[in-house]
Structures are given as structure tokens and as C-alpha cells.
Specification:
Blueprint lengths: L2 H9 L3 H27 L4 H33 L4 H29 L6 H27 L2 H27 L5 H23 L20
Helix pairs in contact: 1-4, 2-3, 2-4, 2-5, 3-4, 4-7, 5-6, 5-7, 6-7
Length: about 220
């Protein structure tokens, strides 16, 4: 496991820089998520954090482009031998970039004045802390290359996504006008975790199964 990281590190002197940039994307994704969710369920005025959120997302996009440029140089230098590792990281940087996008979706709910029921508000507030901690751990798992921690993360992310699905089902069945915003919030929280899940599973599954963990855990083969 972690073989693609090992191959990248053995093939280029710029591997440390590339992986460092990727970890910066994960840090910024967590920061964007924290900003957005604090405006939705943490009592922060959306107007006070909008500029910082958008500048953080812009930085995520700029870092993604930096990584892609370096990977293109790596591919042109090492040819077919670099294809697999470069393909993996190209996929993962897109997952990291999408975390910032979903943070903006969450912010939009807050900016529109979305109203949540007390129950949904309390649950989402607890879940935002869990997700923030998971995003920190995702970066640390890369730094430590700890396979056991990766598998623990996968199990927690699966349970989190299942919880969100159940809450969405409840919201959709409710006639309460506050349920629509809650259903969207759960959906966006789930997508943030799903993208971090894709990133972590790259450490423990073969290349052909990248993104496969985005599917129903009960149907995976």
C-alpha cells in the first residue's frame, strides 16, 4: 500500500514539493469548510467571512494548477513509467478542489438565511466538528503514511455518509419548510466527507478502484 507515493518519491526530486502542495490544498479545504459551516450553524455572520472564504477557495484552485503543471513536467520527463502515479494524484487534487466548492455551497445556504429546525441545527453543529477533525486527520494520514489510520478513517467516513443519507431521507419525507435547507446541508456535508474518503482510499486500494468508495458500502465488491 502507499505504493504510488513511494513510486512518485523515487522518480522525482520534486515529489516532496508536490505532496506538500497537496497537503496545503487539504489544509485550505478544511479552513474553507470551517468558515462556511460556522456561518451556517456556528452563529458567524456570513458577511464577515465571505471574502476570506472566497480567497481561500481561490488559493485552492491556484494550488491545484501548480500541482498539475508539475505533474505534466513529471510525465514528460519520465514517460510511461510516471503515468500511474501522475494519474492518481491528478484525480486526488480534483477531490481536494471539490471540498472548497462544497464549502461555498454550504456558505450559500447561510447567506440566503436558511432556517434549520433545532434538531437539525444541533446535529449539523456536531457533525461540522467531526468533519473538520476528519479533514485534519486526512492530511496527517498522508504525512505519516499510516495504513491502519487510513482504514479507520474509511470506516468512520462510511458511517458518516450513512448518517447523512438517513437524515436526508427524513428531511425529504417531512412537510416542515425547514427541512429543505437541512437536506441540502446534509448533502453538502456528505460530499465533503466523500471527497476526503476518495483521497484516503487511494492509499489502500488499487488504481482501478479510485472513486469506487464513493458508492454504497453495501454494494462494493
Amino acid at each position: 500500500m502507499f505504493s504510488w507515493i513511494t513510486k512518485l518519491e523515487s522518480s522525482t526530486n520534486s515529489a516532496k514539493e508536490i505532496l506538500g502542495l497537496f497537503e496545503e490544498m487539504l489544509d485550505d479545504g478544511r479552513h474553507a469548510f470551517d468558515l462556511a459551516t460556522n456561518s451556517l450553524v456556528g452563529g458567524t455572520d456570513p458577511d464577515t467571512i465571505k471574502e476570506e472564504l472566497w480567497s481561500t477557495d481561490k488559493r485552492i484552485n491556484q494550488t491545484e494548477r501548480k500541482i498539475r503543471r508539475r505533474l505534466l513536467t513529471h510525465s514528460s520527463t519520465y514517460g510511461r513509467g510516471a503515468f500511474a502515479t501522475d494519474l492518481v494524484l491528478m484525480s486526488l487534487v480534483k477531490d481536494a478542489e471539490r471540498i472548497g466548492d462544497y464549502a461555498k455551497n454550504i456558505f450559500d445556504l447561510a447567506a440566503l438565511g436558511a432556517t434549520l429546525s433545532p434538531e437539525s441545527h444541533e446535529d449539523l453543529r456536531a457533525k461540522k466538528d467531526q468533519v473538520s477533525q476528519m479533514l485534519v486527520r486526512a492530511k496527517n494520514i498522508y504525512a505519516s503514511e499510516n495504513e491502519d489510520q487510513a482504514r479507520e478513517f474509511i470506516a468512520e467516513a462510511d458511517a458518516f455518509c450513512l448518517h447523512c443519507d438517513k437524515q436526508i431521507d427524513l428531511m425529504l419525507k417531512s412537510e416542515d419548510g425547514k427541512s429543505t435547507a437541512a437536506a441540502l446541508a446534509y448533502r453538502f456535508f456528505k460530499r465533503v466527507v466523500s471527497h476526503s474518503l476518495n483521497i484516503i482510499t487511494s492509499l489502500v486500494v488499487p488504481l482501478d478502484k479510485l472513486d469506487y468508495y464513493d458508492e454504497d458500502p453495501e454494494t462494493r465488491g
